[in-house]
Design a protein that fits this description.
CATH superfamily: Vaccinia Virus protein VP39
Distance between the termini: 32 Å
Largest sheet: 9 strands, mixed
Shape: globular
CATH class: Alpha Beta
Order of helices and strands: HHEHEHEEEHEHEHEE
CATH topology: Rossmann fold
Number of strands: 9
Length: about 210
């Protein structure tokens, strides 16, 4: 699972992972983060998710990270906003009122580039990465966000039955990656209905990660 895979998916418009409405788990559980309006929320590997529009419309500021410039060009077009674009070494920053999206490899994004964030909403990042990248990702995310609290969504299923992404991330693995940095609470555990996992037994987990 490398950058070329994701660039190819966006170039070919093979984006079945892109939802047609804000994620129901975001809508149902975002308030557990107890954020004031105007708080800045980081959305890693954001694509052009409609979750960003939902967060903006509910009074939050957004920071995002995304590998595909195609996705972010489309995101700003769909928001009806003309971005300002700045070069930050290997990263490009697309900015407008209340939104900054960093385009490039998330591992090239530093805390200094990102700036302060009040929370992380990870619906599509951890589950997009193969197992051999997830420990590096979770450490990097924790470092650049200064242990900001997280709303995290994961899936668990028999990986032999379906090739990710989204990959299966077990409840034990979530705890292994994050238990040294956070108090971990399970908010929901439900059967996955529809989508790529419609034909297999799969669970969707929602987690609240707060300072330990």
């Amino acid at each position: 699972m490398d950058a070329a895979f994701w660039h190819q998916r966006w170039q070919a418009n093979e984006i079945s992972f892109h939802g047609s409405k804000p994620n129901p788990q975001l809508v149902a559980h975002f308030n557990t983060l107890s954020l004031a309006k105007g708080s800045r929320v980081f959305v890693p590997l954001c694509g052009k998710t409609l979750d960003i529009g939902w967060l903006l419309s509910n009074g939050y500021r957004i920071a995002g990270a995304e590998l595909s410039e195609i996705a972010i060009t489309q995101l700003f077009a769909e928001l009806g906003v003309e971005p300002r674009i700045a070069e930050l070494g290997a990263i490009k920053r697309y900015s407008a009122t209340d939104i900054d999206i960093f385009v490039g490899d998330i591992f090239d994004l530093t805390g200094e580039m990102l700036g302060p964030v009040d929370a992380v909403y990870d619906r599509a990042a951890l589950v997009a990465l193969p197992e051999n990248m997830r420990a590096r990702y979770t450490k990097h995310l924790t470092d650049i966000t200064n242990n900001a609290p997280q709303l995290l969504v994961t899936f668990e299923y028999d990986q032999a039955l379906m090739q990710g992404p989204p990959f299966s991330v077990s409840r034990d693995e979530v705890r292994r990656h994050y238990e040294d940095s956070y108090e971990i609470s399970s908010l929901a555990n439900s059967d996955v209905m529809g989508g790529r996992m419609e034909t297999i037994a799969a669970k969707e987990d929602v987690w609240l990660l707060k300072y330990s």
